[in-house]
Amino acid sequence: MIHPIPAFNDNYIWILTDNDSSQAWVVDPGDAKPVLNYLEEHNLSLAGILITHHHPDHTGGVAKLKKHFNCHVAGPTHLVKIVDQGLVDGDSISVMGRDFDVIATPGHTLDHLCYFSQSQEKDNILFSGDTLFRGGCGRLFEGSPKQMQDSLQKLARLPQDTLIYCTHEYTLANYSFALSLDTNNANLIKYEQECQDLRAQNLPTLPSKISIEQEVNPFLRAHIDQVSNNAAKQLDQELGKTAEARFAQIRKAKDSF
Fold it and tell me: What is the residue extent of each domain of the chain?
């Protein structure tokens, strides 16, 4: 089972549990306190931590949780002070009985990793950190537009039914921007209403699916003329000549939206 533990204003720390076990793993614990509270409430012990990238809102709780549980910590190789197992593109790691493939996705940060697990018996799942959001993607703090576009295309090629567990509740803001570019997208209009209803009940809009993102996420739709043209107009620029330039315009338009 995968459950969101809310943290800060809009973060989700994902916790993986198994009905047959009293152990758990968490993904990107930026704050130890809500994790400790959840584990105590459900009589669980922390076996491990997965990290997608180095930002403090994803790593801030690691040291305290490690000290409390002496749990295994895996993530980007350069985080030598906090990880026991450095991971790179193409590696795999077992978490709660599931094997996860490590996918390097530079763009938001240069060290960003995503974790994908494919299963015949269970859902395919992706922990996408701050690379792929529902309706959006992460800001380019360290990487280039080309790096982020390439990273997103890697994820877009995963099975269409893959469930996407990102780490922020940005969906409604992302959909507001998406609608400004993709005004007549019926799927986008439908999902936006569904997510409005979920948030009105204080429920998460996640997980998403690869198929949903293909239908509505503007960062996977830079090849759609209406989307890229409207982004260029918002910036008062001429339309970019290449796929990379169009993607960069969409990212820049979102940054100032």
Answer: 2-216
Q: What is the pTM of this model?
A: 0.97
166, 4 Cβ separation under 8 angstroms: no
Buried b / exposed e along 43-58 (16+ C-beta atoms within 10 A): ebebbbbbbbbbbebb
Report helix, strand or coil for 230: helix
> What does the alpha-carbon distance between residue 24 and residue 195 come to, in Å, rounded to a whole number?
28
Per residue in 199-229, pLDDT tens? 999 999 999 999 999 999 999 999 999 999 9
In tens, the pLDDT along 143-188 reads 999 999 999 999 999 999 999 999 999 999 999 999 999 999 999 9
Q: Which residue has the tokens 């990880």?
A: 83
228 close to 240: Cβ distance less than 8 angstroms: yes
Q: What are the residues whose beta carbons fall under 8 Å from the beta carbon of 51, sequence distance 6 or more?
A: 27, 28, 58, 59, 62, 73, 74, 75, 76, 79, 82, 83, 113
Q: Report the residue count for the chain.
A: 257
Instruction: Tell me if the domain spanning 2-216 has CATH number 3.40.50.300.
Output: no
Reported as half-sphere exposure (CB side, CA atoms, 13 A), residue 182 has a value of 27
Q: Are 216 and 187 in contact (CB under 8 A)?
A: yes
The C-alpha atoms of residue 228 and residue 174 are separated, in whole angstroms, by 16
Q: What is the largest CA-CA distance in the chain?
A: 58
Helix, strand and coil percent figures for the chain, each rounded to 5: 35, 25, 40
